[in-house]
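Hi W., the flavin mononucleotide complex you wanted:
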Amino acid sequence: MTPTKPHILGISGSLRQGAYSCAVLRGLQESVRERARIDVFSLQTVPLYNADLDGDHKPAPVVALKKAIRDCDGLVLVSPEYNYGVPGVLKNALDWASRPGYQSVLKDKPVLIMTSSPGMTGGVRAQGQLRQTLAATLSRVIAVPEVLISQVQTKIQDGRFIDVTSLKFMLEAFDVLLAEIRSSPATH
Ligand SMILES: Cc1cc2nc3c(=O)[nH]c(=O)nc-3n(C[C@H](O)[C@H](O)[C@H](O)COP(=O)(O)O)c2cc1C
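Structure:
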């Protein structure tokens, strides 16, 4: 019997058309196609968190986000850095997904974080903040390697991520994510 490919959910922290973060995510998606399925969830329509809306009748994009996270074996977050921190859209999505506290769809979920930036620091401060936020969700964040992609604009051509060295690094981290998924009691 052929084992089922792990089902990964990819989320970009940028809504921008032509976002480098989305190109990085697509690059990973293509590179692992034989081994895993990565579906990308767009945060475009997720509203701002409002506890008044977080009851029995949540906004449809929030229901879809939570279902997508619940149904996947692992998450890949690819984010830029805004003003030394996590872009609001991604933090907002994690806030929605994190409820109910300590019992949410993020609990025990294997998560790989990757950040990128046109600068030299590769979004390291956003990465640190993401790790801190995810600690509150009890998800299983891959500790090492920390994937930081600096000067990302030089590594993308016609919307395609083409930097072989960075891709190798991303694939090493992805293998750690797959190992974490395999060690999960409830998944592959
Ligand atoms: C509001 C804002 C704040 C930014 N702050 C940072 C920052 O703190 N560090 C950094 O490396 N780049 C920063 N940038 C530059 C982004 O890294 C750059 O715009 C990047 O292309 C955004 O990611 P994307 O291509 O995935 O949309 C900032 C950009 C914006 C729009």
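The longest strand covers residues 110-116.

W.
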